[in-house]
Amino acid sequence: MNRTTLSLIAGVTALAAVTGLAALTTPDASDANTAKAAAELPVERTSLVCPAPSISDLAETTYTSFTPVTKGAASDGKGELQSAAQEKGDAADGKGEKGDDAGKAGKADKPVLEGKEPGTPVSGDASGADSPALIGTADGKFAPGWTVQETTEVAAGTGRGLQGVNCTAPDTEFWFPGASTAPDRTDYVHLTNPDDSAAVVDIELYGKDGALETTVGEGITVQPHSGEPILLSTLTSEKQDNMTVHVSVRSGRVGASVQALDDKLGGDWLAASADPAGSLVLPGIPKDATSVRLVAFTPGDADADLKVRLASPSGLITPAGNETLHVKAGMTSAVDLGDVMQGEAGSLVLTPTDRSVPVVAAVRVVRGKGDKQETAFIPASRAVGTRATAVDNRAKGTTLSVTAPFGAAEVKVTASAGSEGGAAASKSYSVKSGTTQDVAVPVPSGLKGTYALTVESVSGGPVYASRTLAVSADGVAGFTVQTLPDDRGMVAVPEADEDLSVLQR
């Protein structure tokens, strides 16, 4: 079951709660007036999972939760994050895995993070290598557009720098182009199971010559309410600089993210690419990027030929020497674009040169020089759609990039109240067709703490966005980039033409 299906179920649940319907009759297909236009209703329940943040004892992690104010949402509810271990104990009727005492202790513990009110972010901290995976649930007024960010600062060692990831909705399939088993890389696939029954997962790896032979990649069991980090180098003996990881779930569902740690270039999280599609947008590459590597993969049985363009502040341009990319079926392709940004904001736009073949893609971005380099990843993203949010923004070091690759658009950006004080502020922007803008974001007046940025599409073509968060420590410019796909906080539910109240029980 994919995320769209889950959102639809949530929307139908919301409709039932509003109307009190116990059943719906199937309309006669011959009657064109049976159903009215679809109604947009807020979802009533949302689940997110956050991977265990780090293997370093020097790690400091911040979790930030935020729900935008949504018209028509319920008047009550809650949004909270629990450690996976505690959820596991709670699930066993107060007994947990280690008996009554463990279960009672789990019941007594408070959530790691609890929401305040929609419109105000809330943050919590963790430290060291013992921080567990987290499982989150929001319902009622906290559910529509609920967003949680996990941000980790690692002072030294492999993966040092800033690592950030949006906690993800559980699903049944994920694609991660850009992973690696190179000698200087330590990459983990983090699997988190939020449910009461075990999930069974397959992990497939694809390198430059096709599928890689794996030893234990099939039938991996992820226990209920638990997180499982899988070191990629334990799945294959082959050393590949660029590979694509495919996570598919046989039974149950999981959240999945790849943690990519480099001995010299720092590290970050690689979030899943948007679903395979003929055209892809990778938004918001930092303008001071010193190296950009594009990695693409096509899961079908046909090769893909892609036109590679950069949506710059002045319009779409073609990188010299990298006008197209040929992606062989079932093989991972990579191309180094070098210093393609030339000091300007930009987004990569991939479109088919001829027939459309579904692909997935991501870019690895490097900033800095010498021993002060840092890495982040930007996967192909879904459009902002109706609304999308980035959280854990700071007074300094926050950059919002917005691109409209296929037609001019207008967006509204709202900076929330601060987590510790401050008033919300909004501003509208016009984005020309084929361009990317690093916009001057509104900052909450009297800001204290962190704040959320919510982007809403007002008019025009599809908009894509990402947020870059930069934090410098010891002369190293640590940074992380998160895309802003539609939060799916609203769902379209067809309205019945006739009064079905007689169906109440």
Automatic annotation (TrEMBL):
Keyword Transcription regulation: no
Secretion signal span: 1-22
Key words of the record: Signal
Compositionally biased spans, kind Basic and acidic residues: 87-117
Renumbered residue ranges of the record's region Disordered: 68-145
Protein name: DUF5719 family protein
Lineage: Bacteria, Bacillati, Actinomycetota, Actinomycetes, Kitasatosporales
